[in-house]
Design a protein that fits this description.
- Helix 4 packs across helix 5 and helix 8 packs across helix 9.
- About 40% of the residues lie in helices and about 20% in strands.
- With about 290 residues, it is of the alpha/beta class.
- It is elongated and about 70 Å long.
- It folds into two domains: about 150 residues, P-loop containing nucleotide triphosphate hydrolases (Rossmann fold), CATH 3.40.50; about 130 residues, no CATH class.
- The strands form two sheets. The chain has a five-stranded parallel sheet with strand order 2-3-1-4-5, sandwiched between helices. A four-stranded parallel sheet has the order 7-8-6-9, with helices on one face.
- Helix 2 links the parallel strand 2 and strand 3.
- It starts with a strand and ends with a helix.
- One of its GO terms (molecular function) is GTP binding.
- It comes from Sporofaciens musculi.
- Keywords: ATP-binding, GTP-binding, Nucleotide-binding.
Amino acid sequence: MRCVIVTGMSGAGKSTALKMLEDVGYFCVDNLPVPLIPKMADLLRVPGSELNKAALGVDIRSGQSLTEMARVLEELDNAGMKYEILFLESTDHVLIKRYKETRRFHPLAGNDGRVDEGISKERERIKFLKKRADYLIDTSHMLTRELKRELNKIFVENKEYKNLYISVLSFGFKYGIPPDSDLVFDVRFLPNPYYIEDLRPQSGNDREVREYVMNNEKAIEFLDKMTELVEFLIPNYVQEGKTQLVIAIGCTGGKHRSVTLANELFEALSKNENYGIRVEHRDIGKDAITKAR
């Protein structure tokens, strides 16, 4: 028997999470009235019942009944009912962008439609659920398939999950340092493939560029030291409750050296399956766009 309460910020991916859980055999109910949660939990404990896995969506749409959630959870605890809380999080900037793209109104935006104010009110009202969450996933940098992969680890493969998602991000300094970076590494000290005519149109995703960049003792030593530092920091970040770690690696244009080192670091960190990880190359195609103008 497994009961999962799916909650979190509006726009952070709860619908995607519920759909994924439904696809793997969970009985899913979205926006179930909070007072009915104990009754649903009782159904899961009926001997011989076919209903042995359920996911219950609870969020700000529950209105005033959301204030009863703390009491309901205490009631479940007293009854010895086992449950897990999955909390989906995202930054204000990303949530606002998602609302603008979908042209939806935030449930708490009010008459003036201010999404930022609605998000602020929502964070305050559901922070007690975030504190109690068993799994806290920040979807700020996640694609839908990446969120599904992380949920699959937890609810299908039953792997240990440390509530940390790592984004390795390559960028070009001439386009600015990513504002949400937690760690920034500068690899402009390495030989630049841009000055090799055959390599200039290629990127760090191409074998020839990778070999050129990594065929250098300084590059290998830097990768080893960077990997060692990040692997030291990860468990300490987890202990402090950090859920999203953005590691930015920059070169001049974000096309050759930074892409190569970002891919190498991604491969090194991917060996540990306890943490979610992705790699993104922010500026890999910007040189071509700029020149075309």
